[in-house]
Design a protein that fits this description.
The protein has five helices and two strands; from the N terminus they run ααβαααβ. About 20% of the residues are buried. Helix 2 crosses helix 3. The chain has one domain.
């Protein structure tokens, strides 16, 4: 217990050394707007004969934010999705993570021994993350 108490001053000094401007921020209001757009796109095209979806817009400014918003939208709709963002990129996912096109989706599916025909491609023209 004494050791923990002695660590507090060190932790406080370390905490004060962190510059808040350097911490990545994520705007909740703009995320909610984008999630609504994504949900509308999915609902307009979704066919429940597929096992999952792959959301594939034409142009994206911030792929990390988009993948997170697609995950949240598909979670709200109870539809599994391929779009994801993690701290690492599992085998052959990096191409789809950045390009979100049919070729990279098929490459990822083949690497993971998944049938790409079980994944519905949700194609949209909308430019997101503006």
């Amino acid at each position: 217990m004494k050791q923990i108490v002695l660590c507090f001053p060190i932790l406080i000094v370390l905490d004060n050394a962190i510059e808040p401007k350097e911490i990545m921020r994520y705007d909740k209001a703009s995320s909610q707007k984008e999630i609504k757009i994504v949900k509308d796109d999915i609902e307009a095209q979704y066919n429940n004969k597929y096992k999952a979806i792959a959301y594939m817009p034409k142009k994206v400014d911030n792929t990390m934010e988009l993948h997170i918003n697609v995950m949240l939208a598909s979670q709200e709709l109870y539809i599994p999705c391929v779009n994801a963002y993690t701290g690492h990129t599992p085998g052959e996912y990096n191409d789809f993570n950045s390009r979100m096109d049919e070729e990279s989706l098929i490459k990822w599916c083949n690497f993971n021994r998944l049938n790409p025909e079980l994944i519905q491609q949700i194609r949209v023209q909308t430019k997101l993350s503006q």
